[in-house]
Amino acid sequence: MTETSEQAQRRLRVVIADDQDLLRTGFRLIFKAEGIDVVAEAADGLQAVEAVRRTSPDVVLMDIRMPELDGLEATRRIFAEIPTDAEPPRIIMLTTFDLDRYVYAALGAGASGFLLKDVSPEQLVGAVRQVRAGDALLAPSITRRLIERFARQDAADEALHRDLSALTPRELDVLRLLARGLSNAELAERLVLGETTVKTHVTRILFKLGLRDRAQAIVAAYESGLVRPGAAAP
């Protein structure tokens, strides 16, 4: 998925939700220097939900652990309130530890990925632009470890899309590799396809399964049983 021309021309709008004042200030200064608007800040989950409701941002940086309401429940509430015909914000979960057990649940709730709080300014700016364009923060090996460690095969009540029958055999191949965190370039090399063809396959997978981005596609692959935690990549 790529940015529309309207998105490309409009300044990126961000909400920062974290209970650490210093972190919010630091992130705000980084964004200001890059021409990214911080339209609201929140010190807890309830404030985050209200800030999103009030400002309709493009991207939300959401701390997982906050008072009043944690980031996971705040993410669920935000998506529950978005009208079906409206474009939802992209949510990036912030975490201190690289093996936070809530991250997989956050992806299932609709988050587009996660960042460690000690992220560099360049990575932070790149991350919000990346998810605004419709991609997910899935390239780092740390994300793959989290998904594989905490994916639950028997959580039927949390499954997004277990039925993958709408996909062609080639689309299933793409989804298997995508679920391992491979980029489009790596998918193209592995499957001996052009990158444009790979992008087309990914777009069709998302459309057929009613998914928002690659993060949800990864969750769907694990929860459907197409890919199993710890299994070797095909």
Give a nutshell description of this structure.
The chain is an alpha/beta fold and 234 residues long. The chain is 49% helix and 11% strand.
General description of the model:
- This protein has helices at residues 5-9, 21-33, 45-55, 71-81, 102-109, 121-132, 141-150, 169-178, 184-191, 195-209, 214-224, and strands at 13-17, 37-42, 59-63, 90-95, 113-116.
- The protein is globular and about 50 Å long.
- The chain contains eleven helices and five strands; from the N terminus they run αβαβαβαβαβαααααα.
- It has 234 residues and is of the alpha/beta class.
Q: What Rg, in angstroms, do the CA atoms define?
A: 17 Å
Termini Cα gap: 25 Å
**Strand percentage, roughly?**
5-15%
Poorly predicted residue ranges: 1-5, 153-161
Total number of beta strands: 5
Mean of pLDDT: 81
Class from secondary-structure proportions: alpha/beta
Shape: globular
Biggest β-sheet: strands ordered side by side in the sheet? 2-1-3-4-5
Helices, strands, pairings?
Layout: H1 5-9, E1 13-17, H2 21-33, E2 37-42, H3 45-55, E3 59-63, H4 71-81, E4 90-95, H5 102-109, E5 113-116, H6 121-132, H7 141-150, H8 169-178, H9 184-191, H10 195-209, H11 214-224
Parallel strand pairs: 1-2, 1-3, 3-4, 4-5
Task: List its salient traits.
234 residues, alpha/beta, five-stranded parallel sheet, 11 helices, disordered N terminus
